[in-house]
Amino acid sequence: MVDKATIARHFIEAIPHSKALGMVLTEIGDGIAEIMMDYNPAMIGDPQTGVIHGGAVSALMDTCGGAAVMSHPDAPAGTATIDLRIDYMRGATPGQAIRARAECYHITRSVAFVRATAFDEDADKPVATASGAFTVERAK
Amino acid sequence: MNRRPPEPVQIVKQRRDAALAALVGGVPYMQFMGIGVQRRGDELTATMTYDEKLIGNPLLPALHGGATAAFLEVTAMIEISWAMLWSDIESGAIDVETLVAGDLPRLPKTIDFTVDYLRSGLPRDAYARAKVTRSGRRYASVQVEAWQDNRDKLFAQATCHFLMPTRNDG
Fold first, then answer.
1. Which one of A58, A63, A79 makes the best mutation probe of the B interface by having the most chain B beta carbons within 10 Å?
2. Minimum distance, in Å, between the CA of residue B2 and any CA atom of chain A
3. Is residue B168 part of a domain?
């Protein structure tokens, strides 16, 4: 039997943009999702330091937030981002993978609320945090 | 008082275009995303050329929210950097040759970024323009709008705050 987590993993890894950025779902369930994104020189924003562009971190946060919503027990049939705010604490260390963890901490009939944090190998100092609202699409 | 004669138009254009190319060409992520920047005077318009790898929902299909966010953030970042460098490029305080050689001055850093998704991004080219609403000594605030077919129908907008690099002339 194929469980819900496996379906979600295949679904997320089938998203062309997430695939292009090398995102891999490492954990999912009960409104929590964790996604890893390997260091890739194509995603560099500052060639002098080799730091990944903030835009790639935003894409990771957005994907992870959406995955958290999809995995919520209230099971929306689909979701889209309404708004997302990202705070950048520091540049991610060049050469290290970035790991984002998102939690859908509240969901109504039409809106899901999400918080997310991104880390590199230093698990004590976040690279970025995010909060956002997502739509809740109901199956017709 | 003697007025300086106006510079020949080719010289002005060449200088500005070379400076912009140095700013944009140095960012691998912009090439990866297919983002280019066009200039009219000091006004910049960014274009994200459609590619299948920008898709987030293959069923609709729609652009990935992350791709849209990245596009807006890149546009805001280029705009604030351009605004910061403009007067130095024009006055000659920054030598364009050094920019072209890849020796860029320290650029602003993103503090935070808030994006509103107004409608789903269609599988076609997208355009964006940013406006520096306030640029202080330490912080700057930038607004960005993105559209596709119709300039009045934005598909996303964003506000971005930047930490400005410390100037070493103080």
1. A58
2. 43
3. no
Name which of B56, B74, B104 is nearest A15 (Cβ-Cβ): B56
Looking at this predicted complex, what is its ipTM? 0.92
- The pLDDT tens digits of the residues spanning B122-144 come to 999 999 999 999 999 999 999 99
Strand A51-52 and strand B43-48: the pairing is unpaired
pLDDT at res. B1? 61
Q: What structural domains does chain A harbor?
A: 4-135 (3.10.129.10)
Residue B3 lies in a domain: no
**Structural domain boundaries enclosing B121:** 9-163
Contacts of A43 in chain B (CB under 8 A): 28-29, 32
Alpha-carbon distance of B93 to B87, in angstroms, equals 8
Which residues in B94-113 are b (16+ Cβ under 10 Å) and which e? bebeebeeeebeebbbbbbb
Read off the CATH number of the domain in which B154 is found: 3.10.129.10
Task: Give the number of domains in chain B.
Answer: 1
Q: What is the pLDDT of residues B62-92, one digit of tens each?
A: 999 999 999 999 999 999 999 999 988 888 8
